[in-house]
Amino acid sequence: MPYKTIELSVAGPVTTLRMNRPDVMNAMDAALLEDMLEATEATVADPDCRVIVVTGAGRAFCSGGDISTGLETVNGEGTLDQQAARLRRFMRISELLYTTDKVTVAAINGACAGAGLSVACACDFRLAADNAKFATAFQNVGVSGDFGISWLLPRIVGPAPARQLMLDPKTLNAEQAHAIGLVGEVHPASELTDAVEALVGRLLSRTTLSLGYGKLNLAETFDLSFADHMDREARRHAECCRSTEAKCAASAFFERRAPKPAGA
Fold it and tell me: How many CB atoms are located within 10 Å of the residue 237 CB?
C-alpha cells in the first residue's frame, strides 16, 4: 500500500523501508511513526521477505523525534499513562526489527540521532556513509531516551561508553562511531548503496533457518543461564543440520562452489 512519509520497495526477498521527510531530516512525527510501524509489521509478517533494509531519504538517516511543535506532539494528548502507551506502541518498530528472524540492516546515509539512532541500533547491521553523524541527543532536549536505546546501546558499545553517550551527548563522526563499534562498516557516501547490496547478497547466500536461529541465539545471550542457552542452541543447531538447505550449503562448501541462494 502507498505511504505518505516512507517509501517501501520490494526486490525479491529484500524489502527497503526509507523514511521520507527529507526537508526535516526525516524527523519522526506521528504520521511517519504510524507509517513506519504499519510497514514494519507488514514486512516482518511477509513470508517472502528475508532481509529488511532501513534507510532515509536525502541527507539524513533520521534526526530523531520531530520536536518543532513541542515535545509531546508525537505522544498526543491525554494522561501520562495514555501518552506512555501511545509511545510504547510506536516503539514496537525497534522491537520488531530486533526480534524478527529476518536480518535487518541500517543503511545510515547521514545524520542519525535520538530515536533515529535507537532504530539503527535495533538492526543487526549498521553500515554508515563516511559523512554520517551520530548523537543520542536526548539529554540535549531534556528527555531520557526512547525506542529501546538504553537497552540496546550498552549491548553494542559496552556499559561505560553507553553511559557517556547517553548522559553527556556528543556528536560522533562515522570513524569515531566505527572505532567504538557503534557501526560495523564505513564507506564513502557514493559507495554506501553498493556496500549494502554486497552485504545483502552475502546474507541471501546463507540459509533462512540458520540466520534466523543464529539471530535468536544472540538475542537471548543476556537473558539465559549458560546451561539454558546451550540447551536451546543445541536444539536449533540440530534442527538446522536436518534441513535440506543446510545439506545443500554444506555440499557447496565442501565442493568449493558458491551456494545457491536460499529458496532458489
Answer: 15
CATH classification (class only), 6-203: alpha beta
Cell of 46: 511477509
Number of residues assigned to the chain: 264
Full-model pTM: 0.91
Amino acid at residue number 142: G
Nearest to 15 by CA among 67, 41, 50: 50
Cell numbers that stand for 134 in this block:
551520530
**DSSP string computed for 30-92:** HHHHHHHHHHHHHHHH-TT--EEEEEESTTEEE--B--TT-TTTTT-SS-HHHHHHHHHHHTH
For residue range 31-70, list pLDDT tens digits in order: 999 999 999 999 999 999 999 999 999 999 999 999 887 7
Cα–Cα nearest to 4, from 33, 35, 43: 35
The CATH 3.90.226.10 domain(s) of the chain lie at 6-203
69 CB-contact burial (10 Å; exposed 0-12 / middle 13-18 / buried 19+) = exposed
